[in-house]
Design a protein that fits this description.
The chain contains 13 helices and 23 strands. By secondary structure, the chain is of the alpha+beta class. Helix 7 packs antiparallel against helix 8. It is globular and about 60 Å long.
Length: 433
Amino acid sequence: MAKKILVVGGGGREHAIIKALKKSPDCGEIWCAPGNGGISYDAKCKNIKATDVETMVAFAAEEKFDYVVVAQDDPLALGMVDALAAVGIPAFGPDKAAARIEASKVFSKDLMKKYGIPTADYATFDDPAKVMDYIKAKGKYPVVIKADGLALGKGVLICENEEQAADGVKEIMLDKKFGASGNHVVVEEFLTGPEVSVLSFTDGKVVKPMVSSMDHKRANDHDTGLNTGGMGTVAPNPYYTPAVAAECMEKIFLPTIQAMNVEGCPFKGCLYFGLMLTPDGPKVIEYNCRFGDPETQVVLPLLESDLLKIMTACTEGTLADTEVKFSEGAACCVILASGGYPVSYEKGKPISGLTNGQLEGESNITVYHSGTALREDGTLVTNGGRVLGVTAAAPRLTAAITQAYAAAEKISFEKLHKRTDIGMRALKAIAEG
C-alpha cells in the first residue's frame, strides 16, 4: 500500500530524507513543508512554518497523510509528534518529553550524570554572577559555555581565557543573543580528541546505529573561522573503529535508551550521538533528537535498506526485526554557502550549472538543496546561508572527495563560498592508520 508522506522541515537534511524515502516501493505521494525551491523538484511543497504545530497538524489531517516525518528539532521540542498522534497520524520522531534530550542541555547532562553515561564534567547555572565565580574557581581554560535550549546549533562558546568567558556569559545570559535559551547555561570542561557523529535508529527498545560521520563546523579551511551549521561531512569516520563502536554501544547508546525508559520518556526516532574520543574513552558532547545536518547528506546515500520500512518500525516498535544495512563505500558532502555566512549574506543570486536542481549525467552525485528558492520564471536562486550540499558516493573515501569537489566546480553563483579541505583530516587518519 503506497503511503502518502509529509516531511516537516525545509533544508538539506529534509531533501536527503525525501530522496531516500522515494526509493521505497511503499512511498506514494510525498510532500514537504515548508520545503524549498530545490526540494520542489522532488516533492510537493506547502509553505507552512515548521514551528507552526497547529497549522501543520491541521494540514496533515486535511490531506490525510499516512505518515509524517518530523525532521527538525524545534517542532519536535514543541510536541508536533504528540499533536499528530492526537489526531491519529503516526509520525517519525520523539514526542515532546523525549525531545528534551536535545531541547534542554540541563536535562541531558543531568540524565548522563544520573545514569553514569560518560560526558564532560559540568555545572549548570541560572545566575550570571555564579557562572563567573565557578569558572574563576576552576581556573581551567579553554572552558565551554552552552545555552540550555535550542540555538540553531550555535549556542556553544569555547572560551580561551577569563575575558572571553565573561563576554560569553554576557552574550548568552544578559544580552540574550539566543533568546530564552540563555536563561540557563551549562559550563563544561573542554574535551580533546577526534569528534564523531553517530546517528542511530531506535524504537525505544533496540538501537541500530547508522554509518558514522565527520562534520566540519568551522567556516574556513584548516578549521578556522566562525562556527557554522556545518560546511561539509564525510562518512564513515575513520576514527570510529569497530572496537570504539562496541564500547559506545555498551557504555553510551544502550544506557541512554534505557535511561530514557526509566525516566518515563522512551525515545523513538533518530537519536544523534555527538561523541568525543578522548584519551579516557568515548564521551558524549551532545545528543540531538533528530537527523543531523549535513551528516544526513552523507549517511543516507550509503543506506541500502528501505528507509520508510525502518522509520515505520521505529514508530511501531518492531525495529529488532527490521534490516538496517549500509554499503561498504564512502560519501563526501561539500557545502556551497553564501559569501559572508554565518554572519550576514545576500540572497536571490541565480544559480547556474543545474538542471531541475541536479547535475545532469552524474549518477553518483546528488545535489541536496539547503537554501534555494524558485522564482516565478523558474530561475533557481540562493535563499539561505548554506545553499547546496554536493554529495558523492564512491567505493573509497579518496574517490568520494575527489568526485564531490569535481561536481561542485560545475555549480556557480555570485559570492559562492566553500571549504577546500573537507575530508582531509579523515584521509590523514586513514594514512596514519
